[in-house]
User: Fold ABC transporter from Hyphomicrobium denitrificans 1NES1.
Amino acid sequence: MTDLLTAEVGRQGESVGSPDAVSFANVEYTWPGSSPFTLAIADFTLARGEKLLLLGPSGSGKSTFLSLLAGIVVPDKGEIDVLGTDMAQLSGAARDRFRVEHFGIIFQMFNLLPYGTQIDNVLLPLHFSRTRRDRARAEGALDDVAARLLAKLGIDKAVIATARTANLSVGQQQRVAAARALIGSPQIIVADEPTSALDRNTEGAFLNLLFAQSTSAGASVIMVSHDESLARYFDRVVRLDEIAAATRGALS
Ligand SMILES: Nc1ncnc2c1ncn2[C@@H]1O[C@H](COP(=O)(O)OP(=O)(O)OP(=O)(O)O)[C@@H](O)[C@H]1O
Assistant:
């Protein structure tokens, strides 16, 4: 129901009508090289507002899948539709703009700026996306919005005010990375094994905080992992080998 409502109301800069945030149709992509790796996905959808866990063993193509979904690479065949836009129709520069407008990405290694403050790190996407900057500004002064988001994700106010990003624990870095993905309410949150360095309790607490924020923003979340025990936190679990064929070797 929430998905349908979100689809009908829509948001600034976004096509309305489809209940899906992302759809793949007959997609095929090959990494070039002496031992080319090909990922073929006949059919995949991510609904608006859905929290989806994509499972697969190491080397099965999970990061390749996310690179396709976020338009970092474009398919050799087939179509990827994101929020009503055919990604292959955009130029490389337009895809980069589209990504920062509509995606919040939490990388496996977090990719934080060590010499920036936590607030600097959280505000980074707003330098590249006017839509997200305007949405964040609607909630107050940007530094305050970033600090509130960090606090909601479980970083102590004293730590926000004083600790250098380079000195944060892994769990704290993960929360800064999540706040950076969520600020300005992008429609799709992508996370590439962001909990792999955490213990079980911290992992569950982090996912609950992340989902509280993504749900209140109406965002879809897709997270890739090889850890099946995370399934209970998600609306749906998809195994990559059930939706994709991965092959290695010379192209036909
Ligand atoms: N940037 C790249 N350039 C060339 N080939 C690549 C690149 N990234 C991935 N590949 C190829 O795709 C295969 C699948 O890698 P991918 O990172 O998508 O798997 P994964 O399931 O995310 O693995 P892991 O869980 O270990 O991160 C690799 O074995 C490699 O052959």
The beta strands are 20-31, 37-47, 51-55, 77-82, 85-86, 103-106, 188-192, 220-225, 236-239, 244-248.
